[in-house]
């Protein structure tokens, strides 16, 4: 198995665990292996609603336990802000909002005039809460 195949399988496994509600297991994995943050962008693009919601729950927990580590996800979320699918942009903005650093907010501001009204609303909610 090559690295790309192994990475895809790992991302799928993480997503499957999130969908099953095993967030604590994924929190433990992210605490153990900081490189998992680089998969955040791929995970947030999952078509399964429960996986995307689970990512927000995951980051809400990680912000409590690993505030200094969660900015490692920012580089993987930046490309998702340019996705054609509005929910992907909105979900990426949500995670950046949970991360909450100045760098994260800088990227969220790029969506303030997003063509999708729901994405605009998410961005406005995040930035007004800051």
Overview of the structural elements:
The structure is a single chain. 67% of the residues lie in helices and 0% in strands. By secondary structure, the protein is mostly helical. The protein has one domain: Leucine-rich Repeat Variant, CATH 1.25.10.10. Helix 1 crosses helix 4 and helix 2 packs across helix 4.
Distance between the termini: 45 Å
Average pLDDT works out at: 95
- The arrangement of helices and strands along the chain is HHHHHHHH
Structural class: mainly alpha
How many individual β-strands?
0
CATH class descriptor name: Mainly Alpha
How would you characterize the largest beta sheet? none
Count of discrete structural domains: 1
Helix content bin = 55-70%
Percentage of β-strand residues: under 5%
Can you name the CATH architecture?
Alpha Horseshoe
CATH-assigned fold name: Leucine-rich Repeat Variant
Shape: globular
The number of distinct helices, counting runs of at least 4 residues, comes to 8
CATH superfamily: Leucine-rich Repeat Variant
Oligomer: single chain
Poorly predicted regions are none
Name a few traits of the molecule.
mainly alpha, 0% strand, 8 helices, globular, 130 residues, Leucine-rich Repeat Variant
Give the gist of this structure:
This protein is mostly helical and 130 residues long.
